[in-house]
Specification:
The chain is of the alpha+beta class and about 160 residues long. The protein is about 30% helix and about 20% strand. It contains 4 helices and 5 strands. A 5-stranded antiparallel beta sheet has the order 1-2-3-4-5.
Length: about 160
């Protein structure tokens, strides 16, 4: 017969150091939505100013970014978005481990029914994408072989090349 181990009950007195630590952990460990928005906006600005100093760092300001809180049920981290005009957006987030910034350019498809996104890999990559988009008026070319442009993603995540 297998016995189940019952964990000991920890009873902390109201004025004990453990009770105080529990209260501190609860207070510090939880970020409100406003803090998450501010932190996401700050992270986006920091990434843009560091990785894109000659392009996005000059074109975007603090007021251009809007922070979004995490969506725990969907497994989404806090993020920030910036509207560029002409239907183009930037979306900034961190990967789940907060080790890498992910900046995604979202642009309309030439068919007019959806958007296509591409993960940017630095300033040189951004310049190449912008030059390609200039030829189509800021739209990604529609791929007629795909049934739904809403599902197309032109990702260059972690070394994968774009089609």
């Amino acid at each position: 017969m297998t016995e189940t181990l019952t964990p000991p009950t920890v009873a902390a007195g109201a004025d004990s150091p453990l009770a105080l630590l529990f209260d501190i952990a609860l207070e510090i460990g939880t970020q409100g939505e406003d803090e998450q928005r501010d932190d996401a906006q700050t992270a986006a600005l920091d990434h843009v100013w560091t990785a894109y100093p000659d392009t996005l760092g000059k074109a975007l300001d603090t007021d251009d970014w809007s922070g979004q809180p995490a969506l725990d049920g969907a497994g989404l981290e806090p993020s920030a978005v910036a509207y560029l005009d002409g239907g183009l957006w930037l979306h900034h987030s961190s990967d789940g481990d907060q080790e890498r910034d992910v900046l995604t350019l979202i642009a309309p498809c030439t068919c007019g029914t959806g958007y296509i996104d591409t993960v940017l890999d630095g300033e040189r990559d951004l310049l190449q994408v912008l030059n390609d988009l200039r030829a189509t008026g800021g739209r990604f070319p529609h791929n007629a072989n795909e049934p739904d442009c809403d599902s197309q993603q032109r990702l260059r995540a972690w070394g994968h090349t774009r089609p």
